[in-house]
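thought: user wants a sequence for this fold. calling inverse folding tool.
action: design(structure=
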């Protein structure tokens, strides 16, 4: 796993090195200090050989050392201008030349170009003496030609703009020479021209003038007071001509640096000495002080190796007689790791698009004012982050992505850049940057379920909320804003737009109209979820709607059919046994489930206890044996009820006629819409008895007639026989079961007693009830056939 990453790091590093090498040439500018803000330094576009469009498109940027921005690039013109006035003395001090370094960063592609500005000194400071009066004691025995060094003037300018010459007022005793120190500083030296005589003139007052080399020349003056002393034979002498010492830069204020010591062979006041700093520079005077009595040199302020690495000063020891001796003290400041590394961010791109290849996140520089190992630094970031830290020249680093980032995996990175020096103790600086991974529409919406099943009770109200679908999108912003829609149905006969609507914002589904279970039990459709990113991504899910049955249909009686003008009548032989099947009520319910479970019940009967109905199949059967006392006509009121909530029901009225046999004429009955009175029942009984008597006589006559006819033909036949013929009544005359098939077959039995067999006589077993509107016709037809067989017209 480490090898591919190492290859990518090496490849990125090599590419950046090539770019940096391509821009390794240094562009140089020169400008005077104190130039106004906004002044032109140079045309960067021209000096780089780039057009203005290239300069803008490549994202040119000026990087200054440290966090202080001194230069500014004008994108429209390509000019490099000053962002503020530059003070050479503040930026460089006494360093000559004063060079300010900067870098030009071209972001696309990444390229560094080194640049420098030489800040030229202007004569903006006049020479200045640290004391208003210089006291010089000279013994009267001094010989002409003796030289007496004077304290120097300070000038912050450099080069020709600093002190170049000293002059003194014209007098009869002295003239002035200007000498040079090894570091290039000029110093004044007073030369005795004529011997002094204390008794003639006890003191001489002179004016010392320092002149710089600027144009115009600036000057500074001080007074020199020469005091003539009596003869002093011995001048002070230091134990060492040069003192060299090293101190740590963190030495506390007031600490002893060293002690200088001088001796004087004279006695009395001529042997008493005082110590002082002679011709010391401003930095020396600010940093150190000397005890005039014992020569102890102590620290006056905190030292800073990064400011001044060494100090050199002259120490003068003067006795009471006016003679003096001098020595040199060299103090080297030793670096201490007292400065933590500094990090200056030059470029920060805090928003990186996901799925982008290796991208530059930040460019920054690090620095440490310490020296040696204390100033060496290492830079690092946390492990296990998809970022690479690539070093460049001049302590610059580039932070780049290791590869494409995935916002859905990690949307934000907090990268801590740690810079540690190699000093003792090691000092560390940390800088944390936050990188946001901006979203790219690379994830389609995902439904929480692959399919949804919704249940809707039929007969619902229109615009009923029946459920909701939901999808999520791991992207963000508009890329994650989802719109829901109905997709065209695969079944062209399904008018989906008239059945279902969907809220495009939240995926809620609504039934547009009332649904009917009996017409539509279930239907399916697809919904789509589409984001608003670019490109647009979408996904689909299946929605299945199941319509739940409501008990909104009452049972429907198929048999017997109800006709107000001709009620259905069933014939029942009086010889029927108990449990004899009279008929079967057939009913259906368009609902489903328990809403379609039917039960049958006998509500009312002419004679209670004679008939019963089976609750589960609707069969009407006799509950006991019939007797002669039972009424010949019965009216049954049956109830068919479903098992819904609330239950629905239907009723049917059935007429049953008791007969002694099926040879009895089958005639339509009068209307039985109401219960007969007791008198009517008696009259009916009498009529039935009379009709039975007449029928019996008629039957007997017919039998006799048939017997005679058959006997005549018996002679032609040796014997007679009987056969049984099976037949079926038409469908509307037979019992119909719940399944719609015949439940019982019937037989015709015919006996032949000779003759040719052309005449038939039918003895019928129980005949099933028929519909009343066809009953009269059927009965009349059978009677007519019956007469034809008997030869009766």
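)
observation: tool returned 793 residues.
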């Amino acid at each position: 796993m480490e090898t591919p990453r190492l290859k990518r790091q090496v490849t990125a590093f090599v590419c950046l090195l090539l770019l940096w090498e391509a821009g390794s040439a240094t562009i140089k500018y020169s400008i005077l200090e104190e130039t106004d803000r906004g002044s032109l330094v140079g045309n960067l576009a021209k000096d780089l050989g780039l057009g203005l469009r290239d300069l803008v498109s490549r994202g040119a940027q000026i990087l200054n050392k440290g966090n202080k921005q001194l230069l500014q690039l004008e994108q429209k013109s390509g000019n490099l201008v000053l962002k503020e006035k530059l003070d050479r003395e503040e930026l460089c001090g006494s360093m000559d030349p004063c060079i300010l370094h900067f870098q030009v960063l071209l972001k696309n592609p990444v390229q560094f170009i080194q640049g420098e500005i030489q800040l030229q000194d202007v004569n903006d400071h006049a020479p200045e003496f640290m004391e208003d009066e210089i006291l010089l004691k000279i013994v009267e025995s001094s010989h002409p030609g003796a030289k007496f060094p004077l304290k120097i003037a300070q000038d912050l300018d450099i080069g020709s703009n600093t002190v170049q010459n000293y002059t003194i007022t014209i007098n009869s005793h002295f003239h002035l020479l200007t000498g040079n120190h090894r570091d290039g500083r000029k110093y004044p030296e007073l030369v005795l021209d004529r011997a002094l005589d204390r008794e003639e003139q006890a003191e001489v007052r002179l004016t010392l003038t320092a002149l710089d080399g600027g144009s115009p020349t600036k000057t500074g003056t001080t007074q020199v007071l020469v005091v003539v002393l009596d003869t002093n034979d011995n001048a002070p002498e230091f134990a060492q001509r040069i003192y060299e010492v090293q101190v740590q830069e963190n030495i506390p204020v007031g600490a002893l640096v060293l002690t200088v010591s001088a001796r004087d062979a004279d006695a009395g006041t001529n042997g008493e000495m005082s110590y002082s700093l002679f011709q010391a520079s401003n930095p020396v005077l600010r940093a150190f002080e000397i005890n005039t009595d014992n020569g102890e040199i102590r620290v006056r302020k905190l030292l800073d190796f990064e400011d001044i690495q060494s100090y050199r000063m002259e120490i003068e020891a003067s006795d009471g007689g006016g003679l003096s001796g001098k020595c040199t003290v060299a103090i080297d400041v030793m670096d201490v790791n007292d400065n933590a590394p500094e990090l200056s961010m030059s470029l920060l791109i805090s928003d990186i698009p996901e799925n982008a290849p290796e991208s530059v996140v930040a460019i920054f520089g690090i620095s440490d004012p310490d020296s040696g190992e204390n100033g060496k630094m290492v830079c690092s970031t946390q492990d296990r982050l998809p970022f690479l830290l690539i070093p460049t020249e001049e302590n610059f680093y580039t932070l780049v992505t290791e590869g494409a980032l995935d916002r859905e995996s990690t949307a934000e990175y907090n990268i801590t850049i740690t810079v540690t020096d190699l000093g003792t103790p090691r000092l560390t600086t940390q800088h944390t940057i936050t990188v946001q991974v901006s979203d790219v529409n690379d994830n389609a919406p995902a439904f929480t379920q692959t399919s949804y099943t919704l249940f809707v009770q039929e007969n619902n109200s229109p615009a009923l909320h029946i459920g909701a679908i939901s999808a999520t999108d791991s992207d963000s912003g508009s890329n994650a804003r989802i719109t829901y829609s109905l997709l065209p149905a695969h079944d062209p006969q399904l008018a989906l737009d008239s059945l279902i609507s969907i809220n495009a914002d939240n995926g809620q589904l609504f039934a547009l109209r009332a649904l009917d279970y009996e017409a539509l039990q279930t239907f399916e459709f697809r919904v789509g979820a589409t984001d608003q990113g670019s490109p647009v991504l979408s996904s689909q899910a299946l929605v299945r709607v199941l319509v739940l049955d409501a008990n909104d249909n009452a049972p429907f009686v198929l048999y017997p059919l109800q006709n107000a003008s001709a009620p259905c009548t069933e014939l029942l032989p009086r010889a029927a046994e108990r449990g004899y099947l009279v008929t079967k009520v057939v009913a259906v319910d368009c609902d489903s489930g328990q809403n379609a479970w039917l039960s049958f019940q006998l509500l009312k009967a002419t004679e209670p206890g004679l008939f019963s109905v089976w609750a589960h199949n609707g069969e009407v059967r006799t509950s006991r044996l019939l007797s002669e006392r039972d009424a010949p006509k019965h009216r049954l009121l049956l109830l068919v009820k479903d098992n819904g909530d609330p239950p629905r029901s239907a009723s049917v009225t059935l007429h049953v006629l008791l007969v002694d046999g099926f040879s009895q004429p089958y005639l339509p009955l009068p209307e039985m819409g109401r219960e007969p009175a007791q008198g009517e029942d008696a009259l009916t009984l009498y009529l039935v008895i009379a009709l039975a008597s007449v029928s019996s006589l008629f039957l007997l006559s017919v039998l006799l007639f048939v017997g005679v006819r058959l006997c005549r033909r018996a002679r032609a036949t040796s014997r007679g026989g009987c056969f049984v013929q099976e037949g079926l009544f038409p469908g509307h005359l037979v019992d119909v079961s719940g399944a719609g098939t015949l439940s019982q077959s019937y037989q015709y039995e015919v006996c032949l007693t000779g003759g040719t067999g052309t005449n038939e006589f039918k003895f019928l077993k129980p005949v099933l009830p028929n519909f009343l509107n066809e009953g009269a016709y059927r009965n009349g037809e059978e009677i007519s056939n019956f007469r034809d067989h008997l030869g009766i017209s």
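thought: summarizing for user.
answer: Here is the designed sequence. DSSP finds eight helices and 54 strands in the chain.
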